[in-house]
Each structure stands twice: as C-alpha cells, then as structure tokens.
Design brief:
The protein has 10 helices and 18 strands. By secondary structure, it is of the alpha+beta class. Strands 1, 9, 10, 11, 12, 13 and 14 form a 7-stranded mixed β-sheet that branches. The protein has a 7-stranded mixed β-sheet with strand order 6-7-2-3-4-5-8. A hairpin with a 4-residue loop joins strand 9 and strand 10. The two termini are about 35 Å apart.
Length: about 300
C-alpha cells in the first residue's frame, strides 16, 4: 500500500532492457471504479502528446522504482480514448472538500492510499477535519460514495469509521479478500493458485480424495492421476499469500527473466560483501540475496543474456 506521492516521481524501469525509460509524472484516477487506471510518463524530452502506462502493463511498484516489461508498455494517450476521457475529468481527490450524504461539510482530503499489489485500488483517503490543527485520520474506501472533482461525498457515519493509522486500511483490505475465499483468482493461466488450493496446500482443508466418508470410492488408478502429490502441491503453493497478488506475479516474472542471465557488474551488499561478480550466472540464490539486501533493482538493471 502506497500514498500517491510515494508513486509520483518514481523511475520507470524496463526490465527487458535494464534501462530507465522515464519517471511517473502523475496518476489518472477512474472515479467510477475508485482506481488508478493510468500513470502519466515524464520521459525527459519534449513530446506533443501525453504518454501513459495502463495499470495492467505495470509489473510492480516498489520503493525505488516502477517496473514494466519493455518500452512498448508506454502508449500515446491519443490512442486511448478511455484515458483521454479520464484525464479530461481531472479527478485529483487530494485537496477536495468532504461532504456527507446529508450535505454537511466536515473537512478536506489529503493524499490517497493505493493498494499497488492489486489493480491499484484506492483503499483510503487522508482526512483533515480541522485545517488549523492538521490532524490527519483515514477515510476507508467503503465509506466513500462519490469521487468528485471538487467534492468527496461520504456516508453520514464516516466519522465513526475514521482510522488513526494507515495500517488499519491494510487490515480492511485483508478482511475484504477473506470474504472472497473460494472464488477463482484472475490470471489463473499465469500460475496463480486459488484460495481453495491454498487452503488445501496449508492443510486447512483435506482434499476430497482423503475423506473416508465418501459413498463412492474412486478407482486407485484414477485417484492417483487426479490427486496432486503433497510434495508437488506444497512446491506450487510456496508463500501463497505472496503468489496470490500482483506483486507475487511481478516477482515471478522478474525471476524468470533473470534466471540464467549474467551480471554485467560487481554487486555488493551494504557491508561490501559480494552478492555476484560481473560475468557470473544469476541463480535463484543470487536473487534471494539481492532481494534481502535491497539490490534486486540493481541486478535487474545490470545483466545480459
């Protein structure tokens, strides 16, 4: 989860080339869905048309960079009528007045909080009730009725649901995801497991094949072909809470890209200890260590086939 101001200004890295292709100049909000649908790109050169990256083309939004597969993920906005329409609406959220459903003005908004691990949903908005004291609390997304250009319309009981800490927004997101247990996760073809599969892999639910009370026994040959061996199942569900997110998908793609390539420079940790030397082959162990030391982006930017 990140504030919009933590996203704006991030370098945009093409992992296919290992180069910076621009910076995040701004965000484009879809008020109807309560999401960020596009990121405006500052490429550092004068261009006639605005260039944007659709949220679906973003691999990840980290502490130091936003990553995309290649520069083709960046589009001219003139080719995206939906993006033009959203940009013209100019929904900023930040700095707008907060109006209750019954018409009471109760304060103004600060920055927005975005769940960058899943569809860039807006999960909360900073709320300033008294502009002289600048005390900031959080409005949960569930209390927002309308994202307007000059007003944020909220439920009448919003003040009862304000949160003092942004961590409370994460807890609400987790609670909402738990309500979705049993529904298939999109992008299943990319290897993301379902909630049901995660529960079985963690031993929270026994596979149907192991239930002794089944009235009709399946033939042993059929049972063995349909049931996944425990070892295989556990390997597919390593860190299920991570794999079931866009962040997990990003890391999986990143690893597949790096695995077997060669480093083009010596990379060390913060104590000067070597993570990998120039010319050495990148392995999963290398990536694990680079990730632990905060050097994964440096590894992505310095490698060759």
């Amino acid at each position: 989860m990140k504030k919009s101001q933590q996203i704006i200004g991030l370098p945009i890295i093409s992992i296919a080339e290992g180069n910076e292709v621009g910076k995040v100049k701004n965000i484009v909000i879809n008020a109807d869905k309560g999401t960020i649908d596009y990121f405006v790109v500052d490429s550092g050169v004068q261009v006639l048309n605005t260039r944007v990256i659709p949220t679906g083309s973003v691999l990840g939004v980290g502490e130091y960079a936003m990553t995309i597969l290649n520069p083709e993920a960046i589009s001219d906005i003139s080719k995206l009528p939906a993006a033009i329409e959203l940009l013209q609406k100019n929904i900023t959220v930040k700095g707008t007045r907060v109006l209750t459903k019954k018409g009471s003005l109760i304060g103004e908004t600060g920055d927005i909080y975005v769940d960058v691990s899943k569809d860039c949903n807006i999960v909360g908005i900073e709320f300033i009730a008294d502009i002289t004291q600048k005390k900031v609390t959080m409005i949960p997304r569930s209390s927002v009725i309308t994202f307007g250009k000059t007003l944020l319309v909220v439920e009448d009981d919003v003040e009862e649901k304000l949160l003092d800490d942004p961590s409370g927004l994460s807890e609400l997101v987790i609670a909402d995801e738990k309500k979705m247990v049993g529904e298939p996760v999109v992008e299943a073809a990319l290897g993301i497991v379902t909630d049901e599969e995660i529960e079985r892999a963690l031993g929270q639910e026994q596979p149907a094949a192991a239930k002794p009370s089944e009235p009709e026994a399946v033939q042993p040959e059929q049972k063995s072909s349909e049931a996944v061996q425990p070892e295989q199942k556990s390997s597919e569900a390593v860190q299920p809470e991570q794999k079931n997110t866009a962040a997990g998908l990003f890391e999986e793609r990143q690893r597949n890209y790096l695995r077997g390539r060669k480093a083009t420079k010596n990379i060390t940790d913060h104590q000067g200890m070597s993570i990998i030397r120039a010319g050495e082959v990148i392995t999963d162990q290398t990536m694990d260590r680079a990730k632990d030391c905060g050097k994964l982006i440096e590894l992505v930017m310095n490698n060759e086939a």
